[in-house]
Amino acid sequence: MRVSDKFGALAERSFRLLWIGRTTSALGDALMPVTLAFAVLSAGGSAADIGLVIAATMVARTLLLLVGGALADRLPRRLLLGGSDLFLCAVQVTAGVLLLTGHGSVTLLLGTALCYGAASAITRPAIAGLVPQTITKARLQQANGLMELSRGAAQVMGPGVAGAAVAIASPGLVYLLDAATFLVSAVTLALLPLAPPARRSDRPHIFAEIAAGWSEVVRRPWYWVTLCGHAVWNVGSSAFVVLGPVIVARQVGGAANWGLVSACMAVGALIGAAVSMRYRPRRPLIVAHLALLPTVLQLAALAGPSPTAVIMGAALVSAAGVALLNSLWSTAVQKLIPEEVLSRVSSYDWLISFTVAPLGYAAAGPLSETIGVTRTLELALAFVIAGVVAVLLVPRVRQLRQSGEGGLYGWPDLDDRADDRPPPLAAAGEPR
Fold first, then answer.
1. CA distance 279 to 196
2. How many Cα atoms are found within 13 Å in the side-chain-facing hemisphere of 426?
3. Cβ(429)–Cβ(72) under 8 Å?
């Protein structure tokens, strides 16, 4: 496949602008985990304060995620994302200036984290609905693959850039760099086409819209059963993140070797995203969820424990499978869920990920101390397999087919129209 074919989605101006903005913003997001820890310490905080600030972001995001999904279906998604970017640009500039002038505090960083979490609760479901509005159907999977690829690349580059910037200058400078990435994203969104606003009709209360989104989830068993399967898989896979550093550092070869494992996971994510840009499986949901099974390999490698090279290889393959799942799953959902409820429905997917995964992280350590590391990993293996099998038992997951052009078929009520044009960008998300 020629390079022009692999990156053909970037030939479409609307998606190219969105991709540039989101890639820049993703790089800014990747700067913050390292920066945040040093910012808290520079403000006189402790390790407990670092955990508190991180928790604040997660709590705000989780509590407001369903509201964000409802807003993204209620308002123009492009303007919603642009407003969120400008808001966070102002927040990060304020925090950066105060840190640079010696006026930083844990309270300031806590407030910044709350703003960050609240804005991301709007951003996540809005992007899920905006991507298919900027690209033709035939290139939708490729577009999702590109988004996954750039996000993975940002996660690889971000920590190193942040560490260097903190060492050379200060955490305040990185906050200003992050603010600049939000500004770039807002500008690219502003350049997207904007038609006259549609006439607004009366809409129910926002909580009624959240309830309506839940109704849309419940009436699609293939969707909510798959989300439950993902939740079970998340619980099982979390054991690798929690117990992996301990096992590798103590038994396999030291803390430096865990750095190699982490690097392989990052490379694997990039490989999986690159594969998803050109691989169009005939049975997309079956292939997507089979791609989660290599997680068994990395858990089994820890249970040995196997040599570092084996753990590295298993981690690479597993991360590649997760990235492939993300692209194939996002594409299928964007094609199968009506556009007017897509953000609300997607917000429930994000909500499960943001709530269940931390529970798995919290449980893995205490459980390993109670029943032992090996049994904990065996239990995690069972969870991973059970989550995948639960999804594959859903008839519609097995029945869904994909044509070479990306069209979906195989369900009696699936209307895969031949019209390959994306819906009008400015009208999408407008109240109806």
1. 38
2. 10
3. yes
Instruction: Note whether 188 and 18 are within 8 A (CB).
Output: yes
Q: Residue 252: what pLDDT?
A: 64
Q: Which of 93-97, 166-170, 349-353 has the highest mean pLDDT?
A: 93-97
The per-residue DSSP string of 366-425 comes to HHHHHH-HHHHHHHHHHHHHHHHHHHHTSHHHHH-EE-TTS-EE-STT----S--SPPPT
Which residue carries 């998604």 as its tokens?
77
In the predicted model, what is the mean pLDDT of the chain?
86
Q: What are the φ and ψ backbone dihedral angles of 415, each rounded to 5 degrees? A: -100, 95
335, 408 in Cβ contact below 8 A? Answer: yes
Residues 280 and 9 sit within 8 Å (Cβ to Cβ):
no
Contact 26, 84 (CB under 8 A): no
Contacts of 34 (CB under 8 A, 6+ apart): 158, 159, 162, 163, 166
- The DSSP H or E segment spanning 272 is helix 255-276
Dig out the tokens for 153 from the structure: 């690349």
pLDDT at residue 250 tops 80? no
The C-alpha atoms of residue 19 and residue 14 are separated, in whole angstroms, by 9
Evaluate if residue 418 carries a pLDDT over 60. no
Q: Helix (H, G, I), strand (E, B), or coil: what is residue 426?
A: coil
Q: What is the pLDDT of residues 172-229, one digit of tens each?
A: 999 999 999 999 999 999 998 754 444 444 567 888 889 989 999 999 999 999 999 9
The first and second tokens of residue 149, run together, are 């690829």
CB-based burial label for 339 (10 Å; 0-12, 13-18, 19+): middle
Instruction: Count other Cβ atoms within 10 Å, centred on residue 371.
Output: 12
pLDDT at 5: 58
Q: Contact at 8 Å (CB) between 330 and 128? A: yes
Contacts of 250 (CB under 8 A, 6+ apart): none
The lowest-confidence range among 22-36, 279-293, 351-365 is 351-365
Tokens found for residue 427? 């009208």
User: In sequence order, which residues have a C-beta less than 8 Å from that of residue 85 and are 6 or more positions away?
Assistant: 21, 25, 182, 183, 185, 186, 189
What is the DSSP secondary-structure string of 339-353?
GGGHHHHHHHHHHHH
Other C-beta atoms lying within 10 Å of the C-beta of residue 101: 9
Q: Indicate the SS3 state at residue 219.
A: coil
Separation of alpha carbons 223 and 217, rounded Å: 7
